[in-house]
Task: structure prediction
Amino acid sequence: MSLSQPASYSRAQIFLHWAIALLVFFQLIFGEAIGEYGHALRDGETPDSGLVIMGNAHIWVGVAILVLMLARIALRLSHGAPALIPGPKLQETVAKAIHGLFYLLLIAAPLTGPCRLVPENQAGRRGPRTDEARVHHSDRAAHRRRPVAQVRPQGRHDAADGLVESLRRRAVQSRASSQIRA
Result:
């Protein structure tokens, strides 16, 4: 570990900072495609080429973020970092804590990404799907067949879309349960 504190960041440190920032920005904008890609694969469907490209891009950009973060940490340990601008002790402590959390997040996110490969059952727990959960997820096939640009990110539906989705789930579940009883 470097004991000296340089007056400013090196060009390599600045490059790594902005390269990682751009890759994270890419993940935030286009990262939802990996969920649809995963659902299609788990449901035994063939995803369209756009979904395959975006899903694979998400994976490889995550790997790139991890590798660049490790290089950034190694560079910081070997070359050091400039001192913080003097300020209140609490502000310096919070700044260091947030910076450490960012580093932790930028390493943990790519490492935990493969954990999403294990499918969820109907209770939302990771593990094999039951037949009822397969019926529920097969209802999403029409949503996945739209081009990637038209797919709305999960979790960001407005109230009307949420109501429609809830009603559709209930209809599918009641059809599935009536088929099981018959």
